[in-house]
Structure formats: structure tokens, C-alpha cells
Amino acid sequence: MKQYDVIINGGGMVGAALACALSGQGMRIAVVEATRREVREDAGYDERAIALAWGTRRIFDGLGLWDELADAATAIHSIHVSDRGRPGMVHMDRESEGLPAIGYVVPARAIGVVLDAAVARADDVDVYCPAALTGVVHSGTSVSVQVTRGDDKTGLLSPLLVAADGADSTLREQAGIGCRETDYRQTAIVTNVTPQLPHNHVAYERFTPEGPVALLPMSEQRCAVVWTVAADQADDVMALDDDTFLAQLQERFGQRLGRLQRVGRRQAWPLRLVSATASVADRLALVGNAVHTLHPVAGQGFNLGARDIAVLAEVLVDARRRGEDIGAAAVLSRYGEWRQRDHRNVTLFTDGLARLFTLPLPALGAVRSAGMLALDLLPPAKRLLTRLTMGRSGRTPRLARGLPL
Ligand SMILES: Cc1cc2nc3c(=O)[nH]c(=O)nc-3n(C[C@H](O)[C@H](O)[C@H](O)COP(=O)(O)OP(=O)(O)OC[C@H]3O[C@@H](n4cnc5c(N)ncnc54)[C@H](O)[C@@H]3O)c2cc1C
What we know:
Elements: E1 2-3, E2 6-9, H1 13-22, E3 29-32, E4 49-53, H2 54-62, H3 66-70, E5 74-76, E6 78-83, E7 89-93, H4 94-97, E8 103-107, H5 108-121, E9 125-128, E10 132-139, E11 142-149, E12 152-158, E13 161-163, H6 170-174, E14 179-195, E15 202-207, E16 213-217, E17 223-230, H7 231-239, H8 242-253, E18 260-263, E19 267-276, E20 280-281, E21 284-286, E22 292-293, H9 301-321, H10 329-356, H11 362-377, H12 379-389
Parallel strand pairs: 1-12, 2-3, 2-13, 3-9, 6-15, 13-21
Antiparallel strand pairs: 4-8, 5-8, 6-7, 10-11, 11-12, 14-17, 14-18, 14-19, 15-16, 16-17, 19-22, 20-21
Flavin-adenine dinucleotide binds next to helix 1, strand 4, strand 10, strand 14 and helix 9.
């Protein structure tokens, strides 16, 4: 049996970020990842991008990794939200928060490369990949698991397991943690375009009766597009030739950035909400998509997961300094309770947006317009929304203040 302080099942962005956060804290960490990473070559024009909130940038600061990401990041100076054909709109900008950016758009590949390199450098982190974690057995003070790599089986022992294994988390299911699931019957079509006019670091979210369209500022004057369509139309949209795709996108987005001139490869993501009823169980903590898989309308999924790992790492490191058993229920409940409010608020906000802006009821259009006008005119409400979007609401863990653990 190999002994670890923490075993993380899932080495996606959230699992890898947790391993980075715990590294250097006098612990031994194992990461078990099912899928070998595809060789990450520069995807060129077609890079998939993720919007990182300001709070997530601070977490990367706290991990000591932001400098490695900064070159790949494009700052978002303001966010412009509008409803096609209606007067309401909301404008949020960095000046109101007195910060250099509301957030950043970063290629997902760059985040993966930086996290994987940091994990590879860490001599207190062992990565088992491609590998499957099976045979979870609890014994009062620890959990033993078996890690299978081909014919090779290794037993691991630890006081704590972390489920970072995504929306269909097997550890969550095995622990009997239920979840609320909603199939949005929508698909996000993701691609990059080059508009005629410079994006000037503005992120656009435009709601249309056919679904929301987001254009996020990227490097080389590209914009990352997330266009949500009804699931039964997704195949047709994916099959459009580039010119027709651009024309349809233009019709939905409008002329704010002039003519949309070039489009990259498209990817389709079916959308659903998965919201776990608890984020801890016996010697188990859930992080990232394993607890909350969200509609991408507000670009909050990874940001929420980054805050999970910032809080979990702080709770574990502090508990260890006090000589506590880091897998004990009392320690894990500190994590669960701390995360409850943020999980609830961001899930409600994202799910509410997804429903309010995609249900085809005419009366809702007027409600949305009035709501957006009111929101734009009410500074306290707008400030609250800006802070939520930036990941700055609620009690902030040390990493999210840019501080080391
Ligand atoms: C179209 C779209 C746009 C998005 N845009 C944004 C955005 O702009 N900003 C933002 O913050 N978020 C965004 N998100 C959300 C974000 O991508 C996710 O929240 C984030 O990737 C979740 O990371 P994760 O590591 O928790 O889960 P995953 O990425 O699902 O990783 C889970 C990992 O666990 C591994 N795994 C699974 N099962 C097992 C197992 N049994 N054993 C071992 N390993 C296992 C998987 O191979 C995988 O590597 C977007 C999502 C979509 C769909």
C-alpha cells in the first residue's frame, strides 16, 4: 500500500489545480486520471477559450502560476449584455471595481499546459494515468483504493479522497450523493471568429429568442464564440458552410463589431445542469464539475471549481497545521459549509439566466428588458452582479486574495 495524504480522482483543470495548491505543503498527493492527455499542440486559430474571472486570476497568482499564463490571456475590460430587439442592456466595467480587468479569456490548452507542467515539476505529487480507481474501502481512519493501469494494480491508502472526476463522477455516485439534473435540451456551438472591428477588450453577451450568443475578446483580434442553440437544431448549425454560419451568427449578434469575417472549426457541447446535493461525504470531498456542472451562459463553471480548490486547500492545510485528521467529518464540513453559499448563488444565477433567456414566452421578453434597464440603473444591484461575475462575492480564501497558503 502506498500512503498519501490526499488522493485526487480526476486530473482535469480542477483536479490538477488542486494538486498544485496542495503541493509544497508537506503532503503527499496522488492524482488518478482516466484519460491520457492528447498531445497538446498549439491549436492555432481554433483554440477553445475559457473566461477566467478576476477572482480566478488571483487564485493563479496565489498558486504562483499566473505569470506563466499571462502571455496567453486577453483582458476583459468590460461586459456588455443586451437582448436583441429590446431596449434593455447592462454594462459592467473594470473602472467600477478599480481593477485592471474584470477577467481574462485564456485558451483552455494554455491552462492545461501550465497546470500539467506544475504537477510534473512537483516531487510530492504522483500521477497515475491512464488509470482507473476501483475498490474503495473505508476503514475508520482511512480509505484504501486500488489503481489499475493495464495489468498493473497498485493499492493506495489515504485519509481523504477528492472527487474531481467531472459531471458523471463515479465517486459521487458510489458515495450515494444525489444530484439535481436538468437537460437544457440546448447545445453550445463553440468556435472563434474574426470581426471587422477591434473588440477593444469588450465581452458581449447577446440574448436572442433562439438562444444566447457570447463573443469574448481573444488574442490576434479573434473573438471566442459560444452560441447556444436548441439541441434539435445543433446538427443543422454544425453542418452549415462557413459563409452561411457567419451570416446566421451575424444576424443574431448584430453589427456591433462590424462584419464577422472569418470562422474557425466548430465544436458542439450538449448542455445540462448537474448540481450535487452535498459536496462532502465520509472521507470524500467533491470539487469542480463533480459538484456543479453549469450552463456556460455566464462562463462560471471553471471559476466556481477554482474557488472550490482554493477553499478546500486552505481548510486542509490549516487543519493539518493544527494536527487534525484532514479526512475527519469536522474538517470536511468546514469546506462543505464554506462553499454552500457560492454554489447556491452561482447555480441559481446561471440556471435562472439560462431559463429566463431561452424560454420562448413573449411576456418574458418584456420582463427581461425591464430587469436589465433596472439593473443598469441601480448601482448597488449592478455592483452585486459585477462582483458575482468576477468571483469576488462572499468570504474569500487566501489563494483568491493572491496569497500563498
Ligand atoms: C461550451 C462551454 C464553455 C465553457 N466556458 C467556460 C468559461 O468561459 N469559464 C468557465 O469558468 N467555465 C467554462 N466552462 C465550464 C468548464 O469547462 C468546466 O467547469 C471545467 O472544465 C470543469 O473542470 P473539471 O476538472 O471539474 O471537470 P472535467 O473537465 O470534466 O475533468 C474531469 C476529469 O476527470 C477525469 N475522469 C472522469 N472520470 C474518471 C474516473 N472514473 N477516474 C479517473 N478520472 C476520471 C476525466 O478524464 C477528466 O480529465 C465551459 C463549459 C462549456 C461546456
